[in-house]
Design a protein that fits this description.
heterotrimer, A mainly alpha (294), B alpha+beta (518), C mainly alpha (338), B: eleven-stranded mixed beta sheet, four-stranded antiparallel beta sheet, C: mainly alpha, globular
Chain lengths: 294, 518, 338
């Protein structure tokens, strides 16, 4: 059989098209989101390949140069290359957001499982605490935590992580409660399965599916919160390259017409958050056929 | 249907916005600033903006004429000094009254000083460190008895904590924040202006005081409009919405406004200095050679270009330029960006490319404006350009920063200084005298220095004092308890038809002479 | 009816422990913050003795439990103490800034609802067409745009390039608020004093910030409205109306929307939190003198009482609004009961 690139491409694309026809817009949203994330993750993993300069280099060119050759996105007032700072900045934001989401989910899921499964006083107290935190504006809580912990990558990650624990908790607890009542769990109990077996073999796997969607949307939110905290000057020391901070630094050049200092970092934050949101939305639609009735 | 309603709404709003503002009968000048007023009380005000307001609504016994640095009589016509230099007797102007009729006399002066000493506000040390007590000699003569003879006492008397206040309206036992707390609700002083209304962080409206004994202001009303950020203020002056703006614009805004022909630029050398402090009694900077190495590597002109677009002046001594006795001590000793010398000094302590001298450099991100981040970043770059230093930049908000320097957490840190009174003593003793140095986290102590500083404080002869301070500056470039970086330039921008603005190194800014050209 | 009363009482009672927990978490968080507020308050030249004395005065040396109980008692009385840094009663500071935030969030909410609801209804009406997809995409995209970036971009375009609108503050430099301020709600105040040019100025200053806030949150309402509208449009009475020959536009925007709107309105309870968060960021970008800016300023100064007071007020507002909204929802929808 002849092997041509066009043929291979068509072969490769067919499953995509099939899914597209089946699920419509949602599928393409998911794919698009995944592509954005992939692009930025690749950029974060191989910054040296994409960035012509070091993000700290204070002699890359003229001060406050507009976008052009060789500075794709111009230079800032310390003569650093904006594009290089964008490339390296992706590492920071991805690191913080993903790690925060992981910590959040881990803590939230475990607490939710335990609380939902065992019930009683523990459940009631924990639920109350989590509900109180859930209603409260996340950003303001994050600001308080960030101010308390002080600047630093670990600190800001923790500040962002804490806000989402209630989300996972509520979701997992709710699911645990309903699954607990299911017939097959009753049956397992009847044949003498231990609590931990029930928890891990029956409840946990069922909970995971929905958590994946929440996780993706969580990362999107964490990205927004991380950028907001650093924009407000609360998150990171300036030796770390960060999009939110570059945005805050570039703000004062607004009336002087040096628009590239704020346009690009902000656009990247939006893009990355959008990528994860699209992925999450797409996944939600696809994993949950009920919702397709729209 | 909804769209047309929306359109109608927008039109109405646009029309309203274009209506002419309420007519202003008086000549009103609108002055924009990003500074803030903290306490409108001479006993507690310790920031330059509030002092500036007081220069205009109050008067001191002595004062500086607008734009100049020599003292002239204010509320006091003259003064005598006793032979031992510890007693100053001031003869007060007669017939002056506060706007509510309270007479101004020696009792008012004594009452005010006693109040400052009792309330122990932030600037009270300017009184309590020097004045032992005040005597009323007669109704128009008051005597200050000092703890020690101090050559620059007259310049202290010209500072705000010494301003007499109206004993009938100020509460003796507490500090007031705004005029509403005064009896009668109005801030009446003896100065060219009186406060008509005050809304914190928004505006303060001052009208010319018809009872002022001296030269009447050339305008009827000055409104200080407080801006929350420099960008909006820059746009306001560009569009002509305010008459003049002062403190503090971003370097990029200053650069654009200087070039603009819609505004006039008024520049003056400020008395504000910035420098690096070292903790001198603990490693690593206990070793003066290392301090010298850091000072040598600092390259001021390119730093100022990058961070301030060249708008401030390089400073080579703690005593600022424009003050008598100033010499370019650091320039003579090290020059700028002297990488060779720096490497040499570090090598003598065993540091090289493979064994770098590592230390932390601290700064505070908002207290000195948001250029501070850049300042620290550039300094780091310059120090590391020697190839033999590795600098970790750290920051802390002001409250933590002060804590830190008390606890010796920061081996070297950036700091700034506005003078309390115009004298080289204020720029030196506070940093290198044993007592002062500890308070600022520098912990420098040398009995030879203390003796020299005391000599400078107490010697009455100007010539001799100049020599002493020159010597101190040379010693400074050797011991380097602090390494100076730059001296601030004051920028004021005004509409092209505004006249009479005089900036002074004393930071005293009088609104009286300002007027609109016809 | 008994059920409803029980629900309301239960709901109110539930609010108390929730607020209590938030307050406690807050207490712990603030006490653990680094930086000594007392020395910053007293100025550079204060000797150790004076600092200790001040700490004693403020009760910072008492055992934590006592401080905690005292703190709770204070909150009940809505007495947040005095600012450590600026010798001002915290309630005064909050009272000055709260109206600004409320005014901003109010107009932001108006714009959000306006945009979100109409776009959502329009999308539901044109289901599965490109317009629908575009609007749904808008709903997702707009939420991912950071509020402050949107603000900066709008400032750049409308404030600087086109020079049409002001980019900061509540009033222009020559409009003196102290001359008309009464309630703190400038739109109201200027109308009361009949200073209409000032009213125009105030409205013009509200435009960009309210729009920024409104735009970013409209995405959520687009989706909510659309989902609710789709349900409503399928119900019997709508089909009956169509059969009767009533104009399609009228059906959608008058009858259907009214019914879809109510659940959307009640959803607003949850969105208050987002609105507050958005307000904090919007205020920083537009130098709006509200609670958000107050919070940030005081965090830098380590002004515990004011920080505490501000966050508590935020918590109380969120708790109250969600309480009210839940009760309204319960009144309307008999299915929701405990």
């Amino acid at each position: 059989m002849r092997f041509s690139p066009a043929h291979a491409l068509a072969q490769g694309l067919t499953p995509f098209m099939r899914m597209g026809r089946k699920y419509g817009l949602e599928w393409w949203i998911l794919v698009f989101g995944a592509l954005i994330i992939l692009a930025i993750v690749v950029m974060a993993m191989f910054p040296g390949f994409f960035a012509p300069f070091s993000p700290y280099d204070q002699n890359t060119g003229p001060q406050l140069a507009p976008p052009g050759d060789p500075h794709l996105m111009g230079t800032d007032n310390l003569q650093r290359d904006v594009w290089s700072r964008i490339v390296y900045g992706s590492q920071t934001i991805l690191r913080v957001a993903v790690l925060a989401a992981v910590i959040s989910s881990f803590t939230g899921i475990i607490l939710g499982l335990i609380s939902g499964f065992w019930g009683g006083l523990l459940d009631r107290t924990l639920s109350l605490v989590m509900d109180s935190l859930y209603v409260f504006p996340g950003l303001i809580l994050a600001i308080a935590f960030a101010a308390m912990f002080g600047p630093g990558v670990i600190n800001i990650t923790l500040a962002v992580a804490v806000i989402y624990i209630p989300t996972y908790f509520r979701l997992v607890r709710g699911q645990t409660l309903s699954i607990k009542e299911e017939l097959y769990v009753e049956a397992a109990k009847a044949i003498g399965a231990s609590s931990s077996t029930i928890l891990w073999k029956y409840i946990f796997p069922n909970v995971i599916a929905t958590t994946v969607v929440v996780f993706t949307l969580n990362v999107a939110d964490a990205i927004m919160i991380e950028a907001a905290l650093t924009y407000l000057g609360l998150g990171l020391p300036p030796s770390i390259v960060d999009w939110g901070m570059d945005l805050a630094m570039g703000k004062k050049f607004l009336p002087s017409g040096q628009w590239w200092l704020i346009t690009f970092p902000g656009a990247m934050i939006s893009l990355l958050a959008l990528g994860f949101t699209m992925l999450g939305e797409g996944l939600a639609e696809i994993l949950n056929p009920r919702l397709l009735e729209r | 249907m909804k769209i047309s309603r929306l359109f109608l709404f927008c039109t109405v709003v646009a029309v309203l916005a274009c209506l002419p503002a309420q007519s202003v009968a008086k000549e009103t000048l609108v002055y924009g600033t990003t500074e803030k007023v903290i306490d409108l009380d001479p006993a507690n005000a310790y920031d330059f903006h509030t002092w500036e307001i007081f220069y205009n609504i109050y008067q001191g016994l002595l004062r500086y004429p607008p734009g100049e640095t020599n003292l002239i009589p204010g509320l006091a016509e003259s003064y005598d000094i006793s032979a031992d230099g510890k007693e100053y007797t001031f003869k007060l102007r007669e017939g002056l009254k506060f706007t509510d009729g309270t007479p101004f006399d020696a009792n008012a002066v004594k009452w005010s000083i006693d109040r400052v000493m009792t309330l122990k506000g932030d600037p009270s040390w300017l009184v309590t460190d020097f004045v032992d007590h005040v005597d009323v000699v007669d109704i128009h003569a008051v005597k200050f008895v000092l703890k020690n003879p101090v050559a620059y006492f007259p310049s202290l008397v010209a500072s705000v904590p010494y301003y007499p206040v109206n004993p009938n309206i100020y509460p003796k036992d507490k500090i007031i924040r705004d005029p509403s707390e005064l009896k009668g609700g109005k801030l009446v002083g003896l100065g060219p202006y009186e406060v008509v209304s005050f809304k914190r962080d928004q505006e303060i409206i001052m009208d010319a005081n018809s009872n002022f004994y001296g030269e009447k202001p050339k305008n009827d009303r000055v409104v200080i409009r407080y801006f929350a950020d420099a960008t909006t203020m820059r746009l306001a002056i560009e569009k002509g919405e305010v008459d003049f703006v002062f403190k503090t614009l971003n370097p990029s805004d200053i650069k654009d406004l200087e070039k603009s022909d819609k505004v006039q630029t008024i520049k003056a050398q400020g008395p504000y200095i910035r420098y690096l402090c070292f903790v001198c009694d603990s490693p690593p900077f206990k070793d003066k050679v290392l301090r010298q190495a850091v000072a040598a590597a600092v390259n001021r002109p390119p730093l100022l270009d990058k961070v301030f677009l060249g708008q401030n002046a390089p400073l080579y001594s703690m005593v600022p330029m424009g003050m008598w006795s100033h010499i370019d001590a650091f320039k003579d000793a090290f020059g700028d960006g002297n990488i060779t010398k720096s490497k040499e000094l570090l090598a003598s302590r065993g540091y090289n490319e493979n064994n770098k001298f590592e230390f932390e450099l601290w700064y505070t991100p908002s207290h000195y404006g948001d250029t501070e981040v850049d300042l620290a970043a550039v300094l780091k770059d310059q120090l590391e350009a020697t190839g033999v230093m590795k600098v970790t930049v750290k920051s802390a908000e002001w409250a933590t920063y002060r804590d830190n320097w008390k606890n010796k957490v920061m081996p070297t840190f950036l700091l700034g200084w506005y003078p309390d009174y115009i004298d080289p003593d204020n720029y030196t003793a506070a940093f290198a005298g044993t007592a002062g140095s500890k308070g600022l986290g520098i912990y420098f102590s040398d009995p030879e220095w203390d003796a020299k500083l005391l000599e400078g404080q107490t010697t009455p002869d100007m010539g001799k004092r100049t020599e002493i301070y020159e010597e101190i500056q040379r010693m400074w470039a050797d011991e380097v308890p602090t390494a100076t970086i730059f001296q601030g330039t004051l920028f004021l921008f005004a509409k092209t038809d505004i006249r009479g603005i005089l900036l002074s190194p004393t930071l005293q800014f009088n609104y009286g002479p300002i007027h609109r050209a016809k | 009816m008994r059920n409803l009363t029980r629900y309301i009482i239960t709901r109110i009672l539930l609010t108390i422990p929730m607020v209590l927990i938030l307050l406690s978490i807050l207490f712990v968080v603030l006490r653990l913050m680094p930086g000594d507020p007392v020395s910053s308050m007293l100025g550079g030249h204060a000797p150790e003795k004076v600092i200790e004395q001040k700490k004693e005065e403020l009760g910072l040396n008492r055992p934590m439990v006592i401080q905690y109980l005292d703190y709770l008692w204070q909150v009940c009385r809505l007495d947040f103490g005095e600012s450590m840094v600026l010798k001002q009663r915290v309630t005064t500071a909050i009272g000055e800034k709260l109206p600004a935030t409320i005014e901003l969030t109010f107009f932001g909410l108006v714009i959000t609802l306006f945009l979100g609801v109409f776009m959502g209804a329009y999308a539901a009406d044109h289901r599965r067409q490109t317009r629908d997809s575009a609007i749904r995409l808008y709903g997702i995209v707009v939420y991912c745009i950071p509020v402050y970036w949107m603000g900066l971009m709008l400032q750049l375009i409308f404030g600087i390039w086109l020079d049409l609108l002001p980019i900061a503050g509540r009033t222009g430099p020559r409009v003196f608020a102290s001359l008309f301020e009464k309630t703190g709600f400038y739109v109201l105040d200027t109308i009361l004093v009949k200073d209409f040019s000032a009213l125009g100025d105030v409205l013009v200053h509200l435009t960009l910030p309210a729009f920024t806030l409104g735009l970013v949150l409209s995405g959520i309402f687009v989706r909510l409205t659309r989902a609710n509208m789709l349900d409503v449009l399928r119900s019997d009475y709508i089909i009956a109306a169509e059969a009767r020959g009533i104009r399609h536009r009228r059906i959608v925007y008058k009858h259907a929307l009214k019914n879809a709107f109510i659940p959307v309105l009640t959803m607003m309870g949850l969105q208050v939190a987002l609105l507050m968060a958005g307000a904090v960021l919007t205020e920083t970008t537009f130098s709006w003198p509200g609670m958000g800016r107050l919070l940030l300023e005081r965090i830098y100064l380590r002004d515990y009482p004011t920080i505490q007071g501000t966050i508590i007020v935020f918590a109380l507002i969120v708790a109250t609004v969600s309480l009210i909204v839940d009760i309204i929802y319960a009144i309307i929808d008999p299915r929701i009961r405990y």
